[in-house]
Design goal:
Elements lengths: L3 H4 L8 H7 L2 E7 L3 H13 L5 E4 L15 E2 L4 H11 L1 H21 L12 E5 L2 H8 L2 H12 L6 E2 L13 E5 L3 E2 L2 H14 L3 E3 L6 E4 L4 E4 L4 E9 L15 E10 L10 E4 L4 E6 L2 E6 L5 H4 L8 H15 L7 E11 L6 E4 L4 E5 L5 H17 L1
Parallel strand pairs: 1-2, 1-11, 2-8, 4-13, 11-18
Antiparallel strand pairs: 3-7, 4-6, 5-6, 9-10, 10-11, 12-15, 12-16, 13-14, 14-15, 17-18
Helix pairs in contact: 3-8, 3-11, 4-5, 5-7, 5-11
The structure holds flavin-adenine dinucleotide (FAD).
The site of flavin-adenine dinucleotide has 41 residues, from helix 3, strand 12, strand 16 and helix 11.
């Protein structure tokens, strides 16, 4: 006879029907309903259409970095890529660009632009310092010749002649690429959620995974209200993974964002970056969304707790007023933060924890671009 108390918390008032449903056996249980978790679930279901897939998320609705980000569908600014080449070598840095580029292509093949408010307005790296611009511009030929095999363009990055038209105060020059875009992160999560449900993937929110027990034939995944049984557990818990795997090679990294009140006659569009990608801004509904500055207070921001860092927020506000919108003072309507997962190396972590537990985390500040491709890579390498 089945021992009910073994799997169901007896303080939870479940019906027989719920019991039957929640004690089903899953081929894979995915922790985290962010963009990575949902892309992974879709890839698994695509590979094994008859499989039983469950996603568990700790919150009432996915509320990790996937819905806190700036919505840049970008594969990197020139100085960011050059920085990556310096830090991790040419081959790995270009590999990362390629994964982002392919990830964006995959994303666009999954969603109609209007579904996720995807707009291809291009990306601009701005330079206030002429010396930094000259150093970067001198390497554009080298970058473009390497990127040609990824983007198919002879000139992925080119100087942007009309930078003065933006009215950014004191800006010296800009490098432009036409391939980058922007989207609405909440619509992306909604779209993935709908696709998962349509594919027959079960998603249960308010179900934080506390820990698990590996057995010879399966794995028991424990939440406060139920224990789920599966074949494998895939952790897509991003910046929160340390609570489940304390030694994981990932550091939580908080990021700060602000958004202004609507500004009449705000005409420019696009994804703007400066200082090797440490600062970024775009427009949305006549407002300016501006984020970054984590590098000015790394210690405080190495946390998995959401919260406003007033020092960084004030710094962003000052930069906004001094450089980006100087015409008149504008109100900041909202501020928020989100938690990313970073590594010593700026590269996603696809690693087995054990025979039955795997991780697909550490998308850094590039998850929108990376998620679809990295999820495909994770599912094929772990489960094929
Ligand atoms: C402020 C900010 C701006 C950014 N801007 C951009 C940008 O413009 N472009 C870009 O490409 N990227 C950007 N990023 C990065 C991007 O958002 C992330 O790389 C991406 O969202 C990571 O997706 P994910 O699914 O791995 O993580 P998440 O969205 O964080 O998902 C992890 C999920 O795991 C769940 N979870 C955690 N622990 C448990 C548990 N124990 N049990 C069950 N569930 C659990 C969480 O609730 C969460 O839903 C930004 C990030 C931030 C914070």
């Amino acid at each position: 006879m089945h021992n009910f108390t073994e799997t169901i918390n007896k303080d939870v008032n479940l019906s027989y029907w719920q019991h039957i449903s929640y004690t089903a056996h899953y081929d894979v249980i995915i922790a985290g309903a962010g963009i990575v978790g949902m892309h992974c679930a879709l890839e698994f279901k695509h590979l094994y259409p008859k499989s039983n897939v469950l996603i568990l998320d700790k919150d009432p609705w996915p509320s990790g970095a996937s819905v806190k980000n700036a919505g840049f569908a970008c594969f990197g600014s020139p100085s960011e890529i050059l920085d990556d080449i310096l830090n991790m070598g040419e081959s790995k840095a270009l590999d990362l660009v390629e994964m982002r580029f392919k990830g964006l292509q995959l994303l666009q093949s999954r969603f109609k632009n209007t579904k996720i408010q995807y707009e291809k307005n291009g990306g601009f790296e701005l330079f206030w310092n002429p010396r930094v611009f000259e150093t970067t511009a001198a390497q554009i030929k080298y970058l473009n010749s390497n990127l040609k095999y990824i983007t198919g363009l002879s000139h992925t990055f080119k100087p942007y002649k009309s930078v003065k038209d933006f009215n950014f105060k004191g800006v010296h020059a800009a490098l432009y690429n036409k391939l980058e875009g922007q989207l609405n992160p909440e619509l992306l999560i909604n779209g993935l959620f709908t696709k998962c449900i349509k594919a027959g993937i079960r998603i249960l929110c308010n179900s934080p995974i506390l820990n698990w027990t590996e057995q010879t034939q399966n794995i028991l995944v424990h939440t406060p209200w139920n224990t789920f049984t599966g074949q494998h557990l895939l952790l897509c818990t991003n910046g929160y993974t340390k609570s489940l795997w304390p030694d994981v090679n990932m550091t939580p990294a908080r990021a700060q964002v602000l958004i202004t009140e609507p500004i009449p006659n705000l005409t420019w569009k696009g994804c703007f970056h400066f200082d090797a990608g440490y600062y970024y801004f775009r427009t949305i509904n006549q407002r300016i969304l501006f984020g970054g500055g984590r590098n000015t207070d790394r210690e405080t921001e190495s946390t998995a707790l959401e919260g406003i860092n007033h020092r960084i927020q004030n710094h962003l506000q000052e930069l906004l007023a001094k450089r980006i919108y100087t015409q008149k003072s504008i109100k900041i309507e909202m501020r928020w933060s989100g938690i990313m997962g970073m590594g010593l190396e700026k590269y996603p972590l696809l690693e087995p924890y054990s025979k039955r537990v795997f991780t697909c985390i550490r998308m850094g500040g590039m998850g929108i671009a990376l998620a679809a491709f990295v999820a495909k890579k994770a599912i094929t390498s772990f489960f094929k």
